[in-house]
Amino acid sequence: MKKILAACLLAVTSLGAQAQEKMPVVASFSILGDLVTEIGGDRVSVRTLVGPDGDAHVFQPSPQDAAVLASARLLVVNGLGFEGWISRLTSTTRFAGVTTVASEGVQALDMEEPDDHKGHSDHKGHSHAGHDHKPAEKPAAKPAADHHHHGSQDPHAWQDATRVKTYVANILAGLIKMDPAGADYFKARALAYDAKLDALDQWIVAQIASVPAAKRKVITSHDAFGYYENRYGVEFVSAAGVSTQAEAAAGDVASIIRQARKEQIKAIFVENISNDRLIQQVAREAKATVGAPLFSDALSAKTGPAGDYLSMMRYNTEQLVKGMKLN
């Protein structure tokens, strides 16, 4: 009788352990990893390929990354050509799980021509918060073949908190597909996070409104803030393109220095994933000081100022506002 009871207890314990087993999910970079964790909660175990302060533009997957991906059931990527290495990695590892493209369906912005580094001020039809007109936007398509440059659309859509709601919807759909039993749990968490995104968006709008319109100009190391500009009405100027691999031409750097001097732009920033050599040169020539690093394509460590997406957006906005008020 005791043996039967022991066997029953072992069976119940095993079932309980199975019920609590978390679904292994891999996110391509840290910002997506945070979003997946927020929606997946206790039902997922999230691993990130490009970690905090990592640059997805130049990332080279290791054998350890391949092993992590091979064990995952769900892979979440940004798409829009951001992860040029991802299809090669999934092919090499023979990844048998499901891939969710977080940006699918987002209203994507077209990129500038590669030799146009004058910032976004020359673009027509921008729609900033509180304005009625809309930019030329296209719904994001699924990622194409493996490549090491971005396509015709800007991949940094997470820089607009309203567009991240599309990311949340896609992540939610991917989690439910792989774990239908957790559907109600995932939906509740997604709904709560959407409310946080709405509050964040309204807060950013209010913060930017505290800066006179003529002062809303910023110089950054690479062109990663097009969506922030489009939504919140800050003009970003950068010598390099949307990829950190892009080399800035001497003429472009000189043009930005002239613009900074002429327009008295003191808000000059480098990003946590970028070399600061170019920005230091611009700041030196423009007699300005480089501000605290912005977080564009990667979060900070958990103990840093941008350990999650919401904190990243708040921190960046605070630094931008502080810098622009010096213009």
UniProtKB/TrEMBL annotation:
Residues 115-146 have a biased composition (Basic and acidic residues). One of its GO terms (biological process) is cell adhesion. This is Metal ABC transporter substrate-binding protein. GO terms for cellular component: cell envelope. Residues 112-159 are annotated as: Disordered. One of its GO terms (molecular function) is metal ion binding. Belongs to the bacterial solute-binding protein 9 family. Keywords: Metal-binding, Signal, Transport.
